[in-house]
Amino acid sequence: MPFRAPAGDGSAEKTILLLTPRGFCAGVVRAIDVVKIALGLYGGPIYVRKEIVHNRYVVEELRAAGALFVDELDEVPEGARVIFSAHGVSPAVQRMAAERRLQVIDATCPLVTKVHLEAVRFARQGHTIILIGHRDHDEVVGTLGEAPESTILVETVEEVDALEVPDPDRVCYITQTTLSLDETKDIVARLRQRFPAIQGPKAQDICYATQNRQAAVKALAPDCDLLLVVGSRNSSNSKRLVEVCEKNGVPAHLVDDESEVDPGWLHGVRRVAVTAGASAPENLVQALVASLKRFGFHRVVELQVKEEDVRFTLPQELERIYAAPAVPRPI
Length: 331
Prior knowledge:
The protein is of the alpha/beta class. The protein folds into three domains: 15-25 and 207-304, Cobalt-precorrin-4 Transmethylase, domain 1 (3-Layer(aba) Sandwich), CATH 3.40.1010; 26-110 and 313-322, Rossmann fold (3-Layer(aba) Sandwich); 123-194, Cobalt-precorrin-4 Transmethylase, domain 1 (3-Layer(aba) Sandwich), CATH 3.40.1010.20. It is built from eleven helices and twelve strands. It has helices at 26-42, 56-65, 91-99, 110-124, 138-144, 157-161, 181-194, 208-220, 236-247, 282-293, 316-322, and strands at residues 15-20, 46-49, 67-70, 81-84, 103-106, 128-132, 151-154, 171-175, 226-230, 252-255, 271-276, 299-304. The chain has a five-stranded parallel β-sheet, with helices on both faces. The radius of gyration is 22 Å and the shape is flat. The two termini are 38 Å apart.
């Protein structure tokens, strides 16, 4: 259902519609906590393979705290401590870590791990795996590595039409966790048309936070003139929020922070909606709201679509430490 402003609320007043839920998901909170806790427990150096989450402000904050970000494990000294990012890694990366005797803390989001396990299970059953996702995204690279000889990546319905598989009766699909729900639905529908016996995951692979943030944008679109999404350019779920809004007929822009807002976007706008991707910090949202107030958007209305109370436990490498009575758990 679209949101409607309450009667008699002075709707001519310039208004910021602040969407909830927004910002950090449970997997992002967990990954950031892992880096901070590791730095507190062990001190430096702590290496992190790739960006821990796809947000440049988060990465810079953790770098300032002492984390050393690397692209590949050959940049990490043998025997050092390294954290795998929330996007997950392939078995080949895990083997390299073992060969180099690295002390690994795995911050892979549990929902990404679920997709990896699905790939392993389907491959063992002899299926051709259709992975729906974006090429070169860190999560997709890791998932492809679970069964590269059995997996075909598709991004569009047109790519589904071009698929050739060894056995049409032994086909399955899995998805990247941060995709557009609508686009994925269309691709899955075409897969089912082409391969009626196709199997899929028992539960939706697209994560709860991605779904909730997209649902909030779709619900709000009829009642706003513009959407601003706080998030970095390499954040898949943030870019999907822009696309979802634009497909509902409302202009939208992705901004890292308030400094990237073009004042021209606000001409003629009375109701501007604000949300944030799942890896964007709340302080950036509040800075954007403060900036919009300087453009005359003094009224702020928070609109909640769904409550989120998902929490993930720490990786087992850290849980074992906190299981010891002498080690207090951080508050």
